[in-house]
Design brief:
globular; seven-stranded mixed β-sheet; single chain; binds 5'-O-[(S)-ethoxy(hydroxy)phosphoryl]adenosine; five-stranded parallel β-sheet; alpha/beta; 23% strand
Amino acid sequence: MSSFHRINSLQDYKNTYQKSIENPEAFWDEIAKTFTWKKPYTQILDWNFKEPNIQWFADGQLNITENCLDRHLETKGNQIALIFEPNDPNTEVRKYTYQQLHQEVMNFAQVLLNQGIKKGDRVCIYMGMVPELTIAVLACARIGAIHSVIFGGFSAQSITDRLIDAEAEFIITQDAAYRGNKTIPLKSVIDDALIQCSFVKRVIVLTHANEPVSMIKDRDVWWEAELEKVGNANVPAETMNAEDPLFILYTSGSTGKPKGVVHTSGGYMVWANYTFEQVFQYQPEEVHFCTADIGWITGHSYIVYGPLLAGGTTLMFEGIPTYPDAGRFWDIVQKHKVNILYTAPTAIRSLMTNGTEIFNGKDLSSLRVLGTVGEPINEEAWNWYHDNVGKSNCPIVDTWWQTETGGVLISNLAGVTPSRPAWATLPLPGIQPILVDENGKENSEINIETGYVHGNLCIKFPWPGMLRTTYGDHERCRTNYFATYENLYFTGDGAYRDSDGNYRITGRVDDVLNVSGHRIGTAEVENAINMHAGVVESAVVGYPHDIKGQGIYAFVICNDHIHDESLVRRDINETITRIIGAIAKADKIQFVSGLPKTRSGKIMRRILRKIAEGETQNLGDTSTLLDPTIVESILANKQ
Ligand code: WTA
């Protein structure tokens, strides 16, 4: 555990928060100086949200892996750092002590060096949830290479786009990954992605599932063979400036292709560690089980970096919650005596459908804290989680944050500040939220009837873990996050606040969908649908979905007479799977003869959204439509 002050009561939270606002530099200095710096910083913060230009601890030097690994060796060398629970519960669990993980990371770091990978090079990692994924991430950080992990569910085309955007010449992958009863041929997807990427120099392939792979001469090498060559390596941690990029993670926005959010070495480290310890109130030797995939930001911050920075024990699970049956999470909790379980509302809602018999005979008494992330949690799911999993004994932290924020921004602190169903509650120290109206004017007046004020959620002051840029396109970062409202970071979410300063997140107010906790841009899905040969135009909106939170509803215009609608629907979804990945498949596809457009040709999504939500009467003002009869015909054929 780190030696910064741990908040221990609501009053302590209030005092700490106040301090963090009154003098942010002094506040973050107190915390940041408890880390291991190769060269201590003298500058703390330099910023403006105009360009934007954000720098924390800028003249300090460090390496995050020294903070994740080396600094724990003396006192925790034999403590378990990483537990791997395989997809098949009958195969072997693997455990790594800090000592072992440190050695494995150095060995693989040497492999990376031997391949010619240098500080600043971008390395794309496309793997399943195996311990080597964590090792690969940390080995990149060890030598100062910038990792960009791509979730194993993305298609070859998505990988190609990311490789080109990140100018990544190196790839780490594995033969195949297990997910439930499926085997996913990751290397073969990479091979497809590389057809268009001749600039890729090296692919390192881990053997995991013993699946056949095609190894291309002079390009592909085996992880194991390269590892054998290095033996026990001693790779000192590369010296990084605090503002040197640590990783790129691609995420969807409301326009265009996914953008590469860039996080830096110093600020991200401080934020990941600080938020992990404060939010979960992590205690020494506790087992932390975050069910996310490392392909998403939640896995970066709360499977890899947060827990290891804190000297904790982190559990990685390869499989899915329903394999071999819907009791798998509870088996894992019992087997590894999990103390903290951090998952998504979608998982909770889908497990709820299996009833509570599944808990019979399962010992969940090790659980101390439950967490939720990724999408708004409805009260029913919150209560089920609280009563059946937490046995009414565990605080639930509802953690609101984003890929761009690096770590949690708004959440209660487990057992320290009150939890409240469906409310993320209070901002972390250093976070200054503000609710604004469409024009950027602050909404501060509480509605007397509801007791809340509502608005678009922005943050008005920087925090160490925030994104610095979007890779290769700083202007895109500015227009996406800092140009909507002057001098504010715009989150894209709407929120309520009550008179005590608690926040309830209501979801995205832009054209980003949140499907099963996965961020998907409507523009991306439309582009994919429009690739299908028969499609002229499409419009995609979200609609409320019982399990997924949001489902994808596509309105599609085709150029020919459709003989069999279900076949075309199937093929459109196959196209989406090819272009993006199966996570972006449309739940509903409605064929239409036209889309509701204004005279200037803009699609009125507001109307489509209402139709998708099941509204038939109050569609709002349709008088500006070029052809109002379109709406009637869409309504008449609703899916
Ligand atoms: C949503 C995931 C309500 C939100 C860490 C945000 C949430 C988007 C919550 C970011 C929460 C995340 N309550 N909504 N506790 N947490 N969100 O980048 O809309 O994958 O903007 O980061 O998820 O998704 P991302």
